[in-house]
Write a structure and sequence with these properties.
Shape of chain B: globular
Structural class of chain B: mainly alpha
Number of helices of chain B: 16
Distance between the termini of chain B: 17 Å
Helix content of chain B: over 70%
Number of domains of chain B: 1
Number of strands of chain B: 0
CATH architecture of chain A: Orthogonal Bundle
Mean pLDDT of chain A: 86
Low-confidence stretches of chain A: none
Largest sheet of chain A: none
Largest sheet of chain B: none
Chains: A mainly alpha (about 300), B mainly alpha (about 375), C alpha/beta (about 500)
Distance between the termini of chain A: 64 Å
Shape of chain A: globular
CATH class of chain A: Mainly Alpha
Oligomer: heterotrimer
Number of domains of chain A: 1
CATH architecture of chain B: Orthogonal Bundle
CATH topology of chain B: ABC transporter involved in vitamin B12 uptake, BtuC
Order of helices and strands of chain B: HHHHHHHHHHHHHHHH
Amino acid sequence: MQISEMIASSIRMCLPVLLAALGATYSEKSGVVNIGLEGMMITGAFWGATCAYYAGPYLGLLGAILAGMLLATVHAVTSVTFKVNQIVSGVALNTLAYGAARFAATTIFKMATTTPGVPRLPTVDIPILSLVGWLEPIVKTLSPVIILAFLLVPATKFVLERTVFGLRLRAAGENPLAADTVGVNISAMRYAGVIISGGFAGLAGGYLAVEHTGMYVEGMTQGAGFIGLAAMIFGNWQPVGAMLASLLFGLSEGVALNVESEIVPYQFIKMIPYVLTIAVLASAIRRATPPAASGVPYERGGE
Amino acid sequence: MRHHRTLRLLALATPLIAVLFAGLIGSVVIAIAGKNPLAVYKTMVSFSLGRFDSIALILFRSTPLLISAVAVSIGFRANLFNIGVEGQYFLGSFFAAWVGFSLRGLPAIVHLPLAIAAAMLGGMVWALVPALLRVRRGVHEVITTIMMNSVAFSMVHWLIYVFLDVQQTTVPGMGSPRMRTPMLLETVRMPTLHSLLNPLLSPLGLEIPRHVYLNYFFPVAIALAFAVNYLIRRTPLGLEVRAVGHNPEAAETQGIDPNSVRLKAFMLSAAVAGLAGLSDLLSYYGYLDIDFPKGYGFTGIAVALLGKNSPAGMILSAFLMSFLRRGAEGAQVLEGIPMDTAVILEGVMILAIVVASSVFGRYALAWQKKEARAHADQ
Amino acid sequence: MDATPVISLRSIVKTFPGVVANRDINLDITHEIHAIVGENGAGKSTLMKILSGLTRPDSGEIWLRGKRVVLTGPGHALALGIGMVHQHFMLVGRFTVAENVILGVEPSRRGVLDIATARSRVLALCRQYGMELDPDARIQDLPVGLQQRVEILKVLYRGAEVLILDEPTAVLAPREVADLFSNLRALKESGKTIVFISHKLDEVLDIAGRISVLRRGQMIGTVKAEDATREEIARMMVGRPVLFSLDKPRVTPGAALLDIKELSVEGRLGNLACDRVSLSVRSGEIYGIAGVEGNGQTELVEAVTGIRKSKSGSTSIMGTHAEGLTPAAIRQLGLAHIPEDRHKRGLVLEMSVLENFLLGKQRRSNYVLQHAINTREARSQASRAVKDFDVRVASLDVAGGSLSGGNQQKLILSRELETGPKVIIAAQPMRGLDVAASEFVRSVLLKARQDGCAILLVSADLEELMALSDRIGVMFRGRLVAEIDRDEATVERVGQYMVGTTAEVAR
């Protein structure tokens, strides 16, 4: 039973990373690097908790998504319209989100680093699967967001590969000049990619605050925004690959949380996810096939 | 010729525009908190500049920011994003602290420089993995350095635990030992500027108060900014760094090895980064604990961007950031505005400055091209 | 035959800051293949951008089949039936042929792509115009000639009646050019009007019905291809009689200064880009490497100059083994490199002219004083070099990126040749330069040849190569398939080696 509990907590832990990785895919495929996912997640976590506090969990999650999208819009404006270095913009937004969350928390709740407890969404059981004994702890009391997140994996694959929007989005990230010449609106595609990624990150934050912990706590994202980027790279910018990579990270965090060791100091166990991220990035680079124009601002008529 | 001067003026104006824009956003934020922005700004300014102890404090606080900014700017020149300054100065501070509490019997003239060297080593050690991964495997350093930051806190936490001296860190009356290193020896402490400056200031009726630990790291930081600038602009290594930063393929074709240059730049950046915590450690605290100031790394990025990698710019920007923080403290105490307004303003300022720079940069290049075309037709 | 011209341009004027690109242009194009020729900078590209809707003229009118139109953008032009086939292909490498063709006008059902319809439509078009293409092939896997076909298919798919082709043969081998021309003739027969921009007079005389010449932004005149000669058109292009064969002074070649033996080099994708190439270049000789781009020339140059590691084989520069050495060390041996892409590898555009001049030499003892760059010495050397090589700059401190293409290339030459190299590797040195700059570069290379340098010249432009080289080697699929003395070389013969029609000659 310990294993299945570990799997259950792994799935819960991997959620923020998975959502961040999926969201990042939209942004990167359109050609914009989004380092600010962490900040969007923080924003989503805080505003998710706040909205849930005042208006219940459904509106809480909706608020989280919208908050993430709003911050992402700023990133889109600076990166796409003003063609600013995308990494700098992302770092700035992370700083901004951190300070804004504290400010808002102090202003609204008179506490800088936490919010009061908030209600959760009703949990879901998958009845058929719980018949299988060892799966029971995993599929019982699942948050609907978890199911949503895993459904978003094939959905993202479908959108990117089989829809008009997906084709144009990818064209904007592979060869924006070519796409522009045939009438694809590069700015619109990139805005869409970035804002969608912000929505995903916001949802991830909302999940953490509303569903997972039941309140907002400063620092609860713990770098999941960055780890999500690493998962996307490791998954070779494909939704299914990102999902597998996220599960791997979730597992590492699940292990870290549930393992107590006399020999290894707990500080080292805390480091596991971050060290794993670095290891993953080091190994993934060989076969990496990022979108060709990722990270490069597009300017029409460049001579 | 007149055009060049116009360009110069505009170049100076962009940071100013950024600051003004941030001020605007700040006003909105303050208004949301239910206060009058102008009154709050007035309080901030008078609190920060109206009192001499505030000014001294601003200078003291700008020291780590300036050092951090110089570190970040070295990376920027080579087109590297050393976001890991945060973790690098933590490790650097620990290495320096270790030298400070472990090595006994050394005269100050040896002990202090040794600690400084240890701090630089600590920073470099912490940047080694991201640097090598970048140079050998092409892994972008942003994520790896951010990860190293997270690991740094845990690592230093553990290191303090290892070196914890129960005797030295237990405060009488309070049972459990505090989670911090033993006290650093006197010989490694950096003297403050009081003995030098107060005699000069007393005729003016001014005095640096006891509780402000403005120390010799302040002039060191300023000197460092100018020294690094000289390195980048006037030495062959600096030329190589800039060439690799702008166009690594062209540098490679001309016989410059981009990876070797990047490694040097990264290590140099990390070595300077390691120093960022020393003003606090060796002058103020005298020990290292888990609550050692955080955030110099990220603020350093803002200072470097706002100051456009130039020494004068970064010095002024460091002052500006400290001024903001100090003012925010005053605003919190006197007007009830949360201090985090300052952090928000920092973030907004970074965005504003890079947007303004980007717009300006494109404009300036277009102008230069036009000039060149006109000239070539003669 | 309908007397109304398909396209009429009336009094078109277009100015950019500092230059008048098009000066009062009048042109009538009927149902034909019409060629527009002129040198670099004559205004052909600008005119075509106006015609295809990418730019708006400052004044003047465009008439399409007797009706005045104002083009608001390339989409609008395409809607009216004018389609541009760009010189640099606008294709997404990772997408398939079908995906590229339909991008922007995708057949779909409620947002979902209807790939089946797309494929069948592409196949139908191919059949209609006699072109062969596999709709599911990825662009990056296709050879250049087929990629160009996809570009043409794109505009046909959108219903273009007028096709504008901008320097279409620049990247094609002679056989691919022949394929393209037969496609164009078929298109014209089926009712399309073709406008063809080029500076290659032989080709233009082959394919076009009428030829219009632009010079310095003005329309000089229009002639019938069957009545015109190369010399006549060239004279109209340049404004003075042009020599088509350069009188090279006879130079007796000396010892071999550059020796390449059985050099094999791996390319970016792990393939074998160069396969056991052997050649040697003697002092006082220009050895030209002919071949369509992408047959290993770039990798050969990178290996010889030390930028890329070779897999096997050896390179000797003046007797010293050079394979495995760093670019810096190879330069120390006396080699200079004029890279094929001056923006990518030649200059750091953001740095000043002076700093670009110092690039690579920054550690030389005469430039370093007390750890800092000796500005005075550097400036005086740079000024002298800039003067000697006629680099027109306002000052040494302007950014490299603000110079014109010709001046940039001259700056690169001044930097490379200032050190007095004995071996020069010149890759596409005259690409994108106007006549005056090209002549200058040519004269510099010839002088170096006279001074005893060994020059390896890589060029995709056969005319340029034939004019300068003493011996010509042809690269095809990574192998050096032929080595011909200039006196025995003809365009046809070299061209056949370039596409592999003639098999490799055992040497």
